[in-house]
Design brief:
By secondary structure, this protein is of the alpha/beta class. It is built from 14 helices and 18 strands. The protein has a single domain, classed as Enolase-like C-terminal domain (TIM Barrel, Alpha-Beta Barrel). Helix 11 links the parallel strand 11 and strand 12. The relative contact order is 0.15. The protein binds D-gluconic acid and magnesium ion (MG).
Length: 437
């Protein structure tokens, strides 16, 4: 398009729906379903304990929508993608055409998929759903089809250096009403390992400065994990849902062995047993164990999960709205998964901002094949920057009934927490070989 041309939908199209008042014949306060023209958009970065990237899309009606654009350890890549390549194309377009804009950004880029692109697409998509909810005066879960349940079951993170510490920590989660807890412990003989938190209630793996290096031994880990879950079942019985994350560190046959050894302890799921670039590896695991399998927090599109879902190789799909292109794409992924008895289990680590958490909770409350929602609490400073309507009560989350996503962004407070470079750690085997983190 020549630079002086207007975007194709910048003038009211011929098929503009009649306004709600004249269509119904009533003189009402029915909210507008008409065109919402995007007048501008801004990207904000803040670090209230960790970095978050936020997209705010403004419209001619004075309404704005918010989207999360945080990609842990690669934040500035998404900022630049949005500022340089997405926002200039949004101005003048109709914010109410969510599906059309999704395809404009996905197909229109030619270079599809990948975490940077899909995080940016997700940020726009969340902001557009937020805007549509605000324009119509309803919470987003009502736009999706309404509530399918009264609350969203959440799991928290219990961790500790030793089994005793983890057992105590799981107890603290149960005291707070949680029905489901993920348990991770230090491994004897290893100085540090994935998932062992530095703070209570939240675990923040990214560290300021350049990437730290950890040491890993799969054999030490495999020998240790069954002990942890035996102790947890002995202590708390069979009612609590227990989860575990292997963080992509096993081979299929190692995962098969771990799954078998954990069967007596009846996990809710074993997560990220193997790196899932190769979806076929799950066939091997599946042939050997009935321990339920979850994967997908690093997936970006339906194609990353296609074999896993259609061959029923997994039980839960972890792809969050933030990585999977927003609500528009993930509802298609969830619909495919439903056909094959695969449930959702959205990633909900602290590196997803409260905007993603809010969007996830609207989706979770509606989606028929909901499984569970990960919930790591954000710091108090983060909650001040992102005031939100969602709440936790007795093990369940609820998105609240504010119009749109029900989350805001306090620009002034955010500005007092400037960006700080941070990276996720890397992992090496005991002989120095670079491994999966
Ligand atoms: C989880 C994840 C996280 C990731 C983190 C990376 O299951 O919550 O594995 O802990 O490591 O989101 O940024
Ligand atoms: Mg994980």
């Amino acid at each position: 398009m020549p630079s002086n041309a207007t975007p194709p939908d910048s003038t009211p199209p011929d098929d503009t729906p009649p306004d709600a008042t004249s269509a119904s014949g009533a003189s009402t306060s029915v909210p507008s379903t008409e065109r919402l023209t995007i007048t501008g958009a801004e990207v904000f970065v803040t670090c209230p304990g960790r970095n978050f990237v936020t997209l705010r899309i403004e419209t001619d009606e004075g309404l704005y929508g918010l989207g999360d654009a945080t990609l842990n350890g690669r934040e500035k890549a998404v900022v630049s993608y949005l500022d340089e390549h997405v926002i200039p194309c949004l101005v003048g377009r109709d914010a109410s055409r969510i599906e059309d804009l999704w395809y404009f950004l996905y197909r229109g880029a030619y270079w599809r998929r990948g975490p940077v692109t899909m995080t940016a697409v997700a940020a726009v998509d969340m902001a557009l759903w937020d805007l549509k909810g605000k324009a119509l005066g309803v919470p987003v879960y009502q736009l999706l089809g309404g509530a399918s349940r009264t609350g969203v079951m959440a799991y928290g993170h219990a961790s500790g250096e030793t089994v005793d510490e983890v057992v105590d920590e799981v107890g603290r989660y149960l005291d707070r009403g949680y029905r489901a807890v993920r348990a991770q412990s230090g491994v004897p003989g290893l100085p540090s390992t994935y998932g062992v938190g530095r703070g209570k209630l939240f675990y923040e793996p990214a560290e300021q400065g350049l990437p730290s290096e950890h040491v890993w031994s799969t054999s030490k880990y495999l020998d240790h994990v069954p002990t942890l879950f035996r102790r947890l079942r002995d202590t708390y019985g069979s009612d609590v849902h227990l989860l575990h994350d292997a963080h992509h560190r096993l081979t299929p046959i190692q995962a098969a062995r771990l799954g078998q050894e954990l069967e007596p302890h009846r996990l809710f799921w074993l997560e990220d047993a193997v790196p899932a670039e190769n979806q076929e590896s799950f066939r091997i695991i599946r042939q050997h164990t009935t321990t339920p399998l979850a994967v997908g927090e690093v997936f970006n599109t339906i194609y990353d999960a296609q074999t896993l879902v259609t061959e029923q190789l997994i039980d839960y799909l972890r792809t969050s709205l933030l990585r999977g292109g927003g609500i528009t794409h993930m509802r298609k992924v969830a619909a495919l998964a439903e056909l094959y008895n695969v449930k959702t289990g959205f990633h909900g680590a602290t590196d997803l901002s409260p905007i993603t958490m809010a969007a996830a909770l609207h989706f979770d409350l509606w989606v028929p094949n909901f499984g569970i929602q990960e919930y790591m609490r954000h710091t108090e400073a983060t909650k001040e920057v992102f005031p939100h309507a969602y709440s936790f009560d007795d093990g369940y989350l609820h998105p609240g009934d504010a119009p749109g996503l029900g989350v805001d962004y306090d620009v002034e407070k955010a500005a007092s927490y400037p960006y700080e470079r941070a990276y996720l750690p890397v992992n090496r085997l005991e002989d120095g070989t670079l491994f999966h983190w």
